[in-house]
Specification:
With 314 residues, the protein is α/β, with parallel strands linked by helices. 36% of the residues lie in helices and 15% in strands. It folds into 2 domains: 163 residues, Rossmann fold, CATH 3.40.50.150; 98 residues, Orthogonal Bundle (Adenine-specific Methyltransferase, domain 2), CATH 1.10.1020.10. Strands 3-2-1-4-5-7-6 form a 7-stranded mixed beta sheet, with helices on both faces. The chain starts with 23 loop residues before the first helix and ends with a helix.
Amino acid sequence: MDNSFEKLTTKPFLKWAGGKKQLLDSITAKYPTGLGTEINRYCEPFVGGGAVLFDVLATFSLKEILINDINVELINAYETVRDDNDALIRQLYLIQQEYISKEANQRKEYYYSKRELFNNLKTSGNKSKNIEKAALFIFLNKTCFNGLFRVNSKGLFNVPMGDSKNPLICDADNLKSVSVSLKKVSMKCGDYAECLSFINDKTFVYIDPPYRPLTQTASFNSYNENQFNDDEQIRLGKFVNRICTLGAKVLVSNSDPKNTDKNDLFFDNIYSEYNIERISARRMINSNGSNRGSISELLISNICNTKERETLLA
């Protein structure tokens, strides 16, 4: 049986805070030699918007791929795109028609009514509503402020409406391509450590956890009801050590504490045994939009024989 993946041109179907689209060139330059041949597995324990996932899917034929995220609604959206895409597109098209036809004040009322409905479905746990919930999740993602996913202490999505004038809520062509790309992708929802049983010496693992905040005002981090604090970052470092001992090729992204404190060696200490590269990225480092600018982020890896992408694919 041919277990290879069909190569398609796809792009993430969600906007995502901290998404890796702008950093793809730096990340792909770190892909291990042999990806797609002797390295025939890919694992992404914090899949988020999936920019790296979709690049891997479009570029390499791999035998097995596992993605995971602790965000239940995010994984439900991925599963729905993969398994119930036609029904999802129908619902998204209807929502798009309703939303675009409304005046600005009516759109605001519509947004908050859909946000309330989404939260009701989220708390009910009714799996028969998973397609509707995924459609609402995508709608809110396309129309909320900056594509954020944030919940309050009760686990309710609380991001306000954004200011996009003509959002593409139903990108049917891309959703169809994404659905095909995801057909042979296994999905889990839970703690990243549950990916351990999948990972071996034939696996490339890309890890993009919730970033350590650079400032107090940047400490958004309410991605779900749990907090990814410094203790969690340390636990993740131990997980990286574990999978490296299995022979996996590992690449980790995170914030660079030295942007705000040149003496902060938090990640330098945790990952002292690995290659640490500082790359330039445009991010907001606090709530003031004037502070959007170029900062450094970390790429941490155990991959010593990296080459430029053109060389890898020659």
